[in-house]
Amino acid sequence: MSVLALILGFVLWVNRRLKVEIAQREKAERILHELTITDPLTGLYNRRHLVEHFPRMLRSAVREHKTLCFALMDIDRFKQYNDTYGHTSGDDAIRRVAQVLQNTMQRGDDYCYRLGGEEFGVLFKGATPIQARAQIEQIRTMIEALQIEHKRSDIGTYLSASFGLIVRTADDIQSFEPLYKEADTLLYRAKAEGRNRVVVNTD
Fold first, then answer.
1. CA atoms of 122 and 73, how far apart (whole Å)
2. Choosing a second label site near 34 at 20 to 30 A (CA), which of 150, 176, 190, 195?
3. Tens-digit pLDDT profile for the chain (203 aa)?
4. One-letter-per-residue 3-state SS of the chain
5. Distance from the first to the final alpha carbon of the chain
6. Which of 21, 26, 64, 118 is catalytic?
């Protein structure tokens, strides 16, 4: 009996060790994946996560017969800001802008992304064009309210941002790339019309 007990104890110990190792490996894989989809400067999701997550978000909006809203945003005259105040101040400005996005987009289906440099994206669903514009306008005004001085800007005293916003019934959206290109076109319009503004596909 003692030999059997020892064998059984050893088997149980091995089983426990395997479970611990599997759990540790799964945790490490989750952490590694999180690192690959997160922007290290701001903690926001990155472009890779947006591309991966968009199809799931679209399917969810189609099932629920909701709109899908995507805004593309650029910080205005950011190169001049970096040239004037230095890259450390530029990084700090980007972090503060990212915090505005996080503070504004707090519902379970709200997602914020840093897509590269001074470009950000916001993805959410279920809003009417009026509601979506109001939400993005809130972000725009809150960025300006940070009062980050930008003395070389020809737009205003403080750092500002421009937005291209798409609001569309999910059934009318086929894939991410055309939506992104349309938002980029609207963002270009916002810049051409003077910056520090929101241009919506219904305008």
1. 8
2. 176
3. 576 666 676 667 767 777 777 667 666 566 555 657 899 999 999 999 999 999 999 999 999 999 999 999 999 999 999 999 999 999 999 999 999 999 999 888 999 999 999 999 999 999 999 999 999 999 999 999 999 999 989 999 999 999 999 999 999 998 999 999 999 999 999 999 999 999 999 76
4. CHHHHHHHHHHHHHHHHHHHHHHHHHHHHHHHHHHHCECCCCCCECHHHHHHHHHHHHHHHHHCCCEEEEEEEEECCHHHHHHHHCHHHHHHHHHHHHHHHHHHCCCCCCEEEEEECCEEEEEEECCCHHHHHHHHHHHHHHHHHCCCECCCCCCCCECCEEEEEEEEEHHHCCCHHHHHHHHHHHHHHHHHCCCCCEEECCC
5. 83
6. 118
Q: Is 118 a catalytic residue?
A: yes
Give the whole-angstrom CA distance, residue 32 versus residue 24. Answer: 12
Distance CA 21, CA 29 (A): 12
User: What letter represents residue 72's amino acid?
Assistant: L
